[in-house]
Amino acid sequence: MIEARHIEALKGLAGEKGLLTEEADMAAYETGARYDRGRAAFVARPATTAEASAIVSYCVRNAIALVPQSGNTGLVSGSTPDGSGRQGVLSLDRLTAPFDLDRVNRSVRAGAGLRLSDLNGRLEDSGLFFPIDLGADPRLGGMIATNTGGSRFLRYGDVRRNVLGLTVVLADEAGTVLDLSSDLRKNNTGVDWKQLFIGTSGAFGVVTECVLNLEPAPKQSATALLVPASADQVATLLVAMEDALGSYLSAFEGMSGNAVAAALDHVPSLRNPFQGGVVPGFVILAEISRATPPRAGEQPLDAVLEEVLAAIWEREGAPLADAFVGPPHEIWALRHALSEGVKHRGRLIAFDLSFRRGDIMPFLAHMKAEMPDHFEDVTICDFGHIGDGGVHFNLVVAKDDPRLADPDFEADLREWVFTVAVEQFGGSFSAEHAIGRKNQAFYDRYIPEKLRVLAAGLKTITSPGPLGTITF
Description:
Elements lengths: L3 H11 L4 E2 L2 H8 L9 E5 L4 H13 L3 E5 L17 E5 L7 E4 L4 E5 L4 H8 L4 E2 L10 H7 L6 H4 L6 E7 L7 E4 L25 E8 L1 E2 L3 E9 L5 H12 L3 E8 H10 L15 E9 L10 H13 L6 E7 L1 H9 L1 H6 L3 E8 L5 H15 L4 E2 L2 E3 L4 E8 L9 H18 L15 H7 L2 H14 L10
């Protein structure tokens, strides 16, 4: 616990609504998306950049550690306090202003506490959207801090590619506010400082506002579930689709049979599109889209997709065994149900990995072959973004498995998975969830010392105060 005088001082800076200290009020901020639970000294909820600056300044001057928290949807214990009760949570949930749309510039200036769904809801009438598609509904500040990618990375890129400017509060004694909010698309006047705060887990500063690039919302789309002829043919199928469709291809998502079955079991309203209801061992969701409305005489996208799939099917040694073209809302409903479906199968131990695109399926094949010998009765329920090399490598353990009571069990499991992913397959241990307490040891192991020294130096320069959960 921290001294009562600090609580009173922070109440004066944040107001009664802006500071939570009661256990019941803080519980949601102390609990992560995947089982991690800490204990907060308080939860500060500034409504403006000025309030955030004042709170951060006070905490730095009094050596009070702060954990920035956005939508709290991450999987690596990066947004929750530890168990000491001496860390404060700095929540972005009231930082929902401003909201200034520049239709001509195709950009929006928004508060970092705005949720992705609210942002795109407000943009709907403009015909624009922020093109990061996620199963969760995070806040913008957390998306920036973790550099999320999502299901349509293949076409639109990650958050980093779609951020034009930021407003950031540094964890120094002054609570310095950095105005990096230029909405220029080309500005080669030196270091692109905003990049320091994208994908670095909030350790270098707290994002309070952002300027985002927007894209024309798709007016037409077509989707299909593809069954590859074999795991070895997935990469061949991806290249064939890209060659035939070019920029029309907006998603190429891989889903294991275990993950699909979990979603179908958990959400009875989902339609099972597979023959006889038998879920294949691996399925791909492919989407093509256009940002223009249908024109007279133009071939519909469903027909385009069917024509391309038919041509691939007729190739010698065809990489495609089966295909189901269907309504986008039905097919995406299946994809978006995977996370919750897998979660309800048992205790979930989740990994967010990335690889060269051609190494994804070999990695998955290796893990499926080796898992029974290393960790018996652990079920692999993977899915992910084959088009950009990302894999949500989810492992499910029965909730009554006695091994879950042993803290070494999960630690040993993580050790094995990361060792294989990084050392044998040259992958990354963090594709789009950045670094939290769960990944700290692997950051220390796999990031070269010189780069860690440079990162620590940048942390000292930007935010010398105790900010965030990662130690650079």
